[in-house]
Automatic annotation (TrEMBL):
Domain of life: Bacteria
Tagged with keyword Transport: no
Name of the protein in question: Regulatory protein, gntR family
Molecular function per GO: DNA binding; DNA-binding transcription factor activity
Gene Ontology process terms (BP): negative regulation of DNA-templated transcription
Keyword list, A-Z: DNA-binding, Transcription, Transcription regulation
Originating species: Prauserella marina
Keyword check for Cytoplasm: no
PANTHER family found in the cross-reference section: GNTR-FAMILY TRANSCRIPTIONAL REGULATOR (PTHR44846:SF17), MANNOSYL-D-GLYCERATE TRANSPORT/METABOLISM SYSTEM REPRESSOR MNGR-RELATED (PTHR44846)
């Protein structure tokens, strides 16, 4: 049984922790302006399915984005791109 193709977040086959590579990939969307300030990121489950990774990998990647100040998570609301100075 084969499902839909998963998106590639590491096309260069870099080595490192999967959650860091995913965080770097998602940060690219923010830095390029694909995800504008104030926009809501897809949910953790959706990202997990989209990239074919464990839910915990997505959660760790989201935490890295928060630590970098790129996003903020509001309980029961979601994760949003922060305003950049």
């Amino acid at each position: 049984m084969s499902g839909p193709d998963k998106k590639k977040y590491n096309p260069g086959n870099k080595t490192g922790y999967e959650y860091v590579l995913l965080a770097d990939h998602l940060a690219g969307f923010i830095e390029r302006g694909d995800w504008a300030p104030g926009s809501r990121l897809p949910g953790e489950r959706a990202l997990s399915e989209e990239y074919g990774v464990a839910l915990d990998t997505v959660r760790k990647a989201t935490q890295i984005l928060r630590d970098r100040g790129l996003v903020q998570t509001l309980k029961s609301k979601g994760t949003f791109v922060t305003q950049r100075d």
